[in-house]
Write a structure and sequence with these properties.
Layout (H helix, E strand, L loop, with lengths): L9 H18 L14 E4 L6 E4 L2 H22 L6 E2 L1 H10 L10 H25 L4 H22 L2 H7 L1 H31 L3 H21 L5 H29 L19 E2 L7 H4 L10 H36 L20 H11 L4 H44 L11 H40 L3 H7 L7 H37 L3 H5 L6 H9 L3 H100 L1
Parallel strand pairs: 3-4
Antiparallel strand pairs: 1-2
Helix pairs in contact: 1-2, 2-3, 3-4, 4-5, 5-7, 6-7, 7-8, 8-9, 11-16, 11-19, 13-14, 13-19, 14-19, 16-19
């Protein structure tokens, strides 16, 4: 209802645009077109004939609203200041290009073309006035004026059409005469300014012919202007004064001063028009104009299907982009790899400036246990003492047994008897047997004892180091020795790797932006209002929104070749430095691990030393008792031999 009786102001334009948009949204969901199930009769009055015209087609409603929007634009343009290049042709152009011309005579192709060119011509007139007031260059003013002529010539052709003549009646003759008058008038203005340009270029012969042509065309305009208002007559007289004065002055100067040949007009280059007006655009689905879609919750199945097709187009775009990114990343990692040490950096020189935390932890633990080394040394000494005592006892027993055995052999030789004499002490055999058993135990334990002492000696120096000043610990760790050239090689490689990382970060950021953009891209609302035949075109237009991101990604990927070339060259120089750094790092890690192992071995060493001490203490007690028994048995054996000799 508001659209039928709009106020004649910009608010009225807004109402018509909103109604047009909502009609577009409605027709996308409800079959209200000609011959469709929900079509209803739509009636409007034809402006020229006054007849009521009815069609069962929602597009007719839209067409009439568009026509009224163009008409209202033209009325507001007539009331506005003549300084804008915007014109009312937009609505008529959209109507001509997007709707059937058979609804009514006033919507025929000829009438709409007439309206479009009349609006364009009048808007171009406004631009012409402004350009002259701004003292723009003569050639530009001539081209602007020539375009006014072009618009009015097209309007005149439409007016001469028989359908247009029958529809407009008497108005047609008046309009045609006025348009023809304007054609001649603005052609005169165009040639006036071409003459002024010739004057600026000191082409005095051309100046005369252009001013003469302007004068001829102005005279034709004056003939056609009979019956026009006094304001028009006054404008024509003023123009005659200007052009007439220019022509007379130019002709006199050329006749008496310059004497240049005056060329024929048709030998000169024609003036091409410069269309600078802007038709007010019409976009029925622009939310800034239409307001919210009041049918938004009605989404046809076809729109859902089209949305799925669009999602596949987006997925294809992403797959294509990701294939390029992954291929480049693979090459990048292959070339980047040799530039890094195992821990993923170029040199890791910072590592050598401090004691690693794991080693600091061991140093701290030993600092609160200052007796660690002394306890270990004492354990070693105690163990050695007991070991020596046992070994001495067993040796003495063995010596006693061997001495007794030697004395026994002498006795046998002396007496001439091989078997032992009756009454020989039986204890020596048992002592000998136990001694052999203890010697075997001692021999086995001796190997373990030797290994324990070797391990203690191995770790003792490391434990002393860990328990000492931190400066000594730091000094014990290997450090690389780099020349100035080596440092320059490292610095250059780091700079290039920083470029590589910057390129990777930008690539990841652009990829993330693309994924997020695709994720949020939902054009279902647009699909609802788009004809099926236009879907492919809509997809192409919508996918253009990704073009800028794709360009950035292409630039990023293209830059990789130069960066990798520089990286490859730097890698060649870095190879020797890398090898040296890797060797130092290996030694450093080995040293750290050895020191940590010494700390962790301490408790085991103390435990093993205690177990060895306990073992040898027990063995020492047994060996001491056995020694006493051996001594007693040997004494008894000696006494027995003396008895035999005395007999």
């Amino acid at each position: 209802q508001s659209a039928v009786s709009v106020p004649r102001d910009f608010e009225g334009c807004s109402t018509l645009r909103k109604y047009l948009g909502q009609l577009h949204f409605l027709q996308s969901r409800i079959p209200m077109g000609s011959g469709q199930d929900a079509a209803v009769p739509v009636t409007w009055t034809e402006i020229f004939s006054g007849k009521a015209v009815t069609h069962e087609d929602i597009k007719y409603e839209q067409a009439c609203v568009l026509y009224n929007l163009g008409a209202l634009h033209s009325m507001l343009g007539a009331m506005d200041k003549r300084v804008s290049e915007e014109c009312a042709a937009g609505a008529f152009t959209y109507l001509r290009d997007h709707f059937p011309h058979s609804y009514s005579v006033d919507m025929s192709h000829q009438i709409l073309s007439l309206n479009i060119n009349l609006m364009g011509g009048q808007a171009q007139e406004c631009l012409l006035e402004k350009s002259m007031l701004d003292n723009r260059k003569s050639f530009l003013v001539a081209r602007i004026s020539a375009q006014v002529v072009d618009y009015y010539k097209e309007a005149c052709r439409a007016l001469e059409n028989s359908e247009t003549a029958s529809l407009l009646g008497k108005i047609q003759k008046d309009w045609k005469k006025l348009v023809q008058m304007k054609i001649y008038y603005f052609a005169a203005v165009a040639h006036l300014h071409m003459g002024k340009q010739a004057e600026e270029q000191q082409k005095f012969g051309e100046r005369v012919i252009y001013f003469q042509s302007a004068l001829d065309k102005l005279n034709e305009a004056i003939k056609l202007a009979k019956g026009q208002p006094e304001t028009v007559q006054e404008a024509l007289r003023f123009t005659m004064d200007v052009i007439g004065g220019k022509y007379n002055s130019a002709k006199k100067d050329n006749d008496f001063i310059y004497h240049e040949a005056v060329p024929a007009l048709d030998t000169l280059q024609s003036v091409k028009g410069a269309p600078l007006v802007k038709a007010l655009p019409v976009n029925p689905t622009d939310p800034a104009v239409t307001g919210p879609d009041i049918f938004a919750k009605l989404v046809p199945m076809a729109a859902h299907e089209a949305s799925s097709l669009y999602s596949e187009e987006k997925a294809k775009l992403l797959r294509d982009v990701m294939a390029k990114i992954e291929a480049k990343n693979e090459v990048l990692e292959y070339v980047r790899g040799p530039a890094l040490l195992p821990h993923g950096t170029v040199d890791n020189l910072d590592m050598y400036n401090h004691i690693p935390p794991v080693l600091m932890e061991k140093c701290a633990a030993l600092s609160v246990r200052p007796d660690t080394v002394r306890n270990l040394v004492q354990s070693m000494q105690v163990l050695s003492g007991v070991f020596t005592d046992v070994e001495a006892s067993l040796k003495e027993i063995r010596d006693l047994l061997e001495e007794d055995e030697a004395q026994e052999r002498k006795l046998q030789e002396l007496l001439g008897r091989v078997p032992p004499a009756p009454g020989s002490p039986p204890g020596l055999a048992e002592v000998s047997k136990e001694c052999s058993k203890y010697l075997e135990l001692h021999e086995k334990a001796s190997f373990t004892n030797t290994e324990l002492h070797r391990a203690m000696n191995l770790h003792l120096g490391n434990l002393r180091l860990l328990g000492g000043p931190l400066e000594q610990v730091r000094a014990a760790l290997p450090t690389p020795s780099l020349s100035e050239d080596d440092k320059q090689v490292l610095q250059n490689l780091k700079r290039i790797l920083a470029k590589v990382q910057e390129m990777r970060d930008q690539r990841m950021s652009l990829e993330q932006q693309l994924r997020e953009m695709i994720q949020k891209d939902d054009i279902t609302t647009s699909l609802v209002t788009t004809d099926r035949s236009e879907m492919k075109k809509l997809f192409e237009e919508q996918l253009k929104k990704y073009d800028q991101l794709k360009v950035y990604l292409e630039q990023n990927l293209a830059a990789q070749e130069n960066v990798l070339k520089a990286l490859t060259d730097a890698n060649v120089k870095y190879a020797a430095v890398r090898k040296a750094l890797a060797e130092v790092e290996h030694k450093w890690n080995t040293t750290v691990q050895t020191l940590v192992a010494s700390y962790e071995a301490y408790e085991d060493l103390m435990k093993n030393a205690q177990e060895g001490k306990d073992f040898y203490t027990d063995l020492e007690g047994k060996a001491a008792k056995l020694l006493e028994r051996a001594r007693a048995a040997c004494q008894a054996s000696e006494a027995h031999r003396q008895q035999l000799l005395e007999r």
